[in-house]
Amino acid sequence: MSEPILQLDSVSKIFGQGRGLVHAARNVSLTLTPGRTLALVGESGSGKTTVARLIMREYVPDGGRVLYRGAALDARDAKAVKAYRSAVQMVFQDPFASLNPTHTIRYHLERPLRLHQRQLSASERLAHARELLERVKLDPDQLLAKFPHELSGGQRQRISIARALAVNPQVIVADEPTSMLDVSVRLGVLNLLNDMRSQLGLALLYITHDIATARFVAGEIMVMYAGQVVEWGDTESVLNNPQHPYTRLLLAAVPDPDRRFADTPPGTELESIEVIREQAARPQPETRQVGDNHFIRPIPV
Amino acid sequence: MTEQVLSIRNLTIDYVGGDSNFRAVKDVSFDIAPGEFFGLAGESGCGKSTIAFAVSRLHRPPALIRSGSEILVGGRNVLDLDDEALRSFRWREVAMVFQSAMNSLNPVLTIADQFYDVLRAHSQVTREQARTRAAELLKLVDISPDRLSAYPHQCSGGMRQRIVIAICLALNPRLLIMDEPTTALDVVVQREILQRIDVLRKKLGFAVLFITHDLGLMVQVSDRIGIMLEGELVEVNDAITIYNAPQHPYTRRLWASMPRLHGEQIKPEANL
Questions:
Q1: Closest residue on chain B to A271 (Cα)
Q2: pLDDT tens for residues B45-88?
């Protein structure tokens, strides 16, 4: 097993002040390993994006440490911070908002190179941009001179991925990269992320509320609720044998053509969801191991 | 045969352009029976929302409904209604929940005023009567009547969505159109809202035209499903058949592109 590349060690982030404190992330620990995908799932407001932003150094943690190659980054060491920003890249949720409408695709792909690989000449940069587009299976001749509005959502998300790959990253944080895409193009983007991970040995953190896609790309999964990771482990173990009431609630709510409304008396399933929500809100017993690589933890009261 | 709530016959819609027209809906026909939950599925740009807008005549130029098309609601052709008839037809017979329904509430009006707005336009009510009716409707969607004095920004996304649904039910429409009503919500809230709709339509008897691209969700909630591809309705069948024995190759490809939660995973190369 290869060495972890990025770790969160009991990281917390608190927003607000006085009595209005919100624990957006509470003692979150996770490990990203080259060539592997970790999925982070949970409902809106569970703290998934806060974790992504903590990794991206957009937020300063209020507790805990972010470890890159085993060591915490010294914020005063500008060179190290820049290297980190190159090594850890993000793909955002909304491909319509994450590309600048006033710039061409070529500009988007060359900009990270201008910032992080200043030794490249203009022609080298262009060659690199073309190569990136080919890597994400887009045609450079067609796209380099285009503007974001001329592209479909799926194409734009591929551009975002190409941009993230421009500076040879080690870690990619993908925050709901397919939630704004059509079902029919989702799979293409997921396959692309998967291919990049295995070809380039990237560590991938895949953030989503769509558990079915999490199963598709990730070997390990973490479930977040109210800022805390409540259940984690091997994806198959967690999904087939969910132990935490909140994980069960999430799984029960996933659209499932095998459980049709027409086959149950009206409203009964709704009640069961409400019951699980109540259970999930109750404090759970201490953290315990429930499988080979499968753990659950109490919910904060 | 009982009379259908909605009968669409040979519906053809073009987006008229300078040089050429784009045919968004091509000769589509289907029926929705009273109380039926009908799903319309397909990817972006397949024309499903164009149909939804056309049914309540909310389409705007450059969309143009070609002659020969018929949209029959309660036996009347919606396309023939004059302005006055159209005004009483909307909300009363067909109400629509939009894709970004959370943002379709007026931010500067209280919830009570938004109900009053609709009720006053379509029936003779006093403010007091409207408030009482609004409280009843909010109870239907499981929201406390205390919320009547709140503004939209004080409610969560899921709550706003349920408020919009409650307003849609204010005049007892026979058909509720929901255009991707839950895409902006997370799965738990989505499930709660759809189950609520399912309970309500069985209680109140309205039919639903439900539009989404999530086929799994659609099979779960719908009685019958129509699959659209590039403006054409390529398959209409019982939800069970769409799931277990899809007839059209496109329907099969759609299923092949949906990652599964349990059991055998789909193959990565399965792509549209």
A1: B192
A2: 888 889 999 998 888 888 889 989 999 998 889 999 898 888 88
**Chain B residue numbers touching A213 (CB-CB < 8 A):** 259
What's the farthest any 2 CA atoms get from each other in chain B?
61
pLDDT of the residue at A139: 93
Sequence ranges of the domains in chain B:
6-256
Q: pLDDT of A157-174, one tens digit each?
A: 999 999 999 998 999 999
Q: E strands, chain B, where? A: 6-15, 22-32, 37-41, 63-65, 70-73, 76-77, 94-97, 175-179, 207-212, 224-229, 232-238
Closest-approach residue (CA) in chain A for B188: A253
Contact B265 A260 (CB under 8 A): no
B195 contacts A183? CB cut-off 8 A:
no
Whether B215 sits inside 8 A of A270 (CB atoms) is no
Please state which CATH number belongs to domain A6-254+264-296. 3.40.50.300
Answer yes or no: are the C-beta atoms of B155 and B163 closer than 8 Å. Answer: yes
| Cα–Cα distance measured from residue B244 to residue A116, given in angstroms and rounded to the nearest whole number | 52
Identify the sign of the CA torsion A6, A11, A16, A22: positive
Express each pLDDT in A55-68 by its tens digit.
Answer: 999 999 999 999 99
Check the CA dihedral A232-A233-A236-A240 and report its sign.
negative
Instruction: Give the fold, CATH level 3, of B6-256.
Output: Rossmann fold (3.40.50)
Q: Compute the distance between CA of residue A24 and CA of residue B262 in angstroms, rounded to an integer.
A: 30
- Alpha-carbon torsion (A167, A171, A177, A183), positive or negative: positive
Instruction: Write out the DSSP string of B30-69.
Output: EEE-TT-EEEEE--TTSSHHHHHHHHTT---TTEEEPTT-
CA–CA distance from B36 to each of B171, B175, B246 (Å)? 19, 9, 21
Give every CB contact of residue A119 below 8 A, 6+ residues apart in sequence: none
Blockwise average pLDDT, block size 10, chain B, 272 residues: 85 90 93 95 87 89 90 89 88 87 86 93 90 92 90 86 91 91 78 87 93 89 94 94 94 88 74 46
